[in-house]
Amino acid sequence: MKLKYFSHSAFQITTASGKVILIDPFLDGNPTSPAKSNDVRADYIILTHGHGDHIGDAFKIAKRCGSLFICLNELANYVAAKGFNAHNMHIGGSHMFEFGRVKLTIAHHGSMTPDNYYAGEPSGVILTIEGKSIYHTGDTGLFYDMKLIGEMTPLDYMLLPIGDNFTMGITDAAKAVELANPKTAIPMHYNTFSVIEVDPMEFKKKVEAIGKKCIVMKFGEEIEL
Ligand code: NI
Ligand code: MN
């Protein structure tokens, strides 16, 4: 499978069978994304929470592609009320889709939509596809249960915010990697706006200092997992 990073929290997973899954596709209003909403397609769209920098262009893309949304119950109801197909889930639950398994986790953050609807709790998501597990933490502060999350699902990749201000900063994110214990950490949610400007190489150094691998993906880069 392939993992593409658009910048911010926006990723695209393409499975070996060609299914495309977008996570938090914030592209058109995202000054750092080299791709815009018309450049992508999606069979599935996973949203971690209702904030505008995560819903992003999800509706535009879903309208064009007929994508199925996968998200937490209250957010899924919001999506369905806008006329889209959604699969409702909630924290702690997992479900097997044709591409692989999706499990929602807690995240410590908010989840109001841009048009001021309460979208339930924010979440993180663990994807298990083709024998590999990928934990996208969503927007969150550091929490000790990341240790439990990593114990219950041994993690190959952990995608986590490092930009500070709205989420974990570098020091807390390095601790999160230590707790969740993934094989490889990939930083996200930084340098999109001036308030979340940090040096991802500083995070990489801290992660490597605890004996873990870190890949700092370029905005627009795609890697094979
Ligand atoms: Ni947020
Ligand atoms: Mn955010």
Supply the key terms.
225 residues, alpha/beta, Metallo-beta-lactamase, Chain A, 7-stranded mixed sheet, binds nickel (II) ion
Describe, in short, the structure shown.
This protein is of the alpha/beta class and 225 residues long. Helix content is 22%, strand content 29%. It has helices spanning 52-55, 58-65, 73-81, 146-152, 170-180, 200-209, and strands at 2-7, 10-14, 20-23, 44-46, 68-72, 85-89, 94-97, 100-106, 123-129, 132-136, 157-161, 184-188, 213-214, 222-224.
Describe the structure.
- This protein has 225 residues and is α/β, with parallel strands linked by helices.
- It has one domain (2-224): Ribonuclease Z/Hydroxyacylglutathione hydrolase-like (Metallo-beta-lactamase, Chain A).
- It contains 6 helices and 14 strands.
- The strands form 2 sheets. A 7-stranded mixed sheet has the order 6-5-4-3-2-1-14, with helices on one face. Strands 7-8-9-10-11-12-13 form a 7-stranded mixed sheet, covered by helices on one side.
- Strand 1 (2-7) and strand 2 form a beta hairpin.
- Helix 4 packs parallel to helix 5 (170-180) and helix 5 (170-180) runs parallel beside helix 6 (200-209).
- The chain is globular and about 50 Å long.
- The termini are close together.
- The model has no long low-confidence stretch (mean pLDDT 98).
- The structure holds nickel (II) ion and manganese (II) ion.
Q: SSE layout and pairings?
A:
Elements: E1 2-7, E2 10-14, E3 20-23, E4 44-46, H1 52-55, H2 58-65, E5 68-72, H3 73-81, E6 85-89, E7 94-97, E8 100-106, E9 123-129, E10 132-136, H4 146-152, E11 157-161, H5 170-180, E12 184-188, H6 200-209, E13 213-214, E14 222-224
Parallel strand pairs: 3-4, 4-5, 5-6, 10-11, 11-12, 12-13
Antiparallel strand pairs: 1-2, 1-14, 2-3, 7-8, 8-9, 9-10
Helix pairs in contact: 4-5, 5-6
Bound molecules: nickel (II) ion and manganese (II) ion (MN).
